[in-house]
Amino acid sequence: MSARVIVGAEDIDVFYGSSQILFGVSLEVAEGQTMALLGRNGAGKSTTLKALAGIAPPSRGVVRVLGKEMQGRKPHTIARAGIGFVPEDRRIFGELSVWENLDVARRAAGRQGRWTMETVFELFPAYTALFPKGFVTAFTTASIPSLSPP
Fold first, then answer.
1. Which residues, 6 or more positions from 46, have their beta carbon under 8 angstroms from its beta carbon?
2. Residue 65's CATH number
3. What's the pLDDT score for residue 106?
4. Is the pTM of this model over 0.85?
């Protein structure tokens, strides 16, 4: 039995204005699989990922997340389905500390989900050592409206 496909693209084309960037790109990433997208500068790596996340919607082809077609859906809807894009240049909140970025994400989510602060701190245990004992536990408690970084 083959693994479930988490995200896939089938024969997608993407344009920026009148310039075609992607030509018939197809890929699948199955559950538990690790994939690397390699290529020289300007080869379309970032554009492929932006197409999957809905930031650069394909003009042709199909993008699926867990078998559901994503055409015409806004990036925030696709993000809620589990696909996001984090630029390598870190321009989004580059002036904020790691702590402040985590706090912004926590507040913006405004809902319970799989990626809780507890999960983040479990994935990055060294980060918890930067805070006073008990602080991480207090931060992950949703009833606290605002906490300042130590």
1. 87, 88
2. 3.40.50.300
3. 65
4. no
